Amino acid sequence: MDADSIIRFKELSFEYASKKIINNLSFNIPKGKVVAIMGGSGVGKTTLLKIISGLIPSTPNQVYVFDKDLALIGQSKKNELRKQIGLLFQFGALFTDLSCFENVAFPLREHANLSPSLLKTTVMLKLECVGLRGAAHLMPSEISGGMARRVALARAIALGPKLILYDEPFSGLDPISLGVTAQLIRKLNDALGSTSVLVTHDVVESFEIADHVYLLAPSENGAVLIGSGTPEEISKNKDPYIQQFINGQQIGPVKFHYPAEQRKKFFLSG
Fold this sequence. Notes:
globular; six-stranded mixed sheet; Rossmann fold; alpha/beta
């Protein structure tokens, strides 16, 4: 039992359709912090989120959330555990036929026995937290993508979760919405006393708000952990892949050209 960690991975490996996705990951997510799990597209970041939330089954003794081995608890206990987890999907995933108010109210109606007046107050407070109390009556089609992401964030925190999971929270946002979303993640984490886990490949925004960063890299046997530390420590890490990733360099371990026949031989043949 680790009182300082809300999530623990112990030699976690995962494969799908005989393809190895994650290889022997071991690290802890500390309580009360904003933690970024970073890496290139397809490296298994979203898979980790699905494992944490129980959407993908885990193997015994590999994944612990709230000190519970996810592989050894029943479905009813897993459902109770999920009530303590807020999840912000990559593109918000609002219910398009429900207003902003009803989108935020949805988890409260499902899991909390609130009076109509208390439900209304709670929903409006959550929307106020993300600056959208005035948009409560609007439909998702009537608001911008950045606003929709904030409504989804209000929904994710509706039940006062201890753990908030963010799947690519900055994807597809304009610079203003991106900055607003990043600061909201930091402020809400501190105000709620929760723990926030971001899976992302956006370096600048993540480094501005994260307390700790874990960096994954691809390998023949699945994603491996190659860097861990504060944003400053990661920036100073001399590993070639880390430097290529955080600085967006073309030259490095990840090649620009997909392996192919030598150009001269190919273009001069025939």
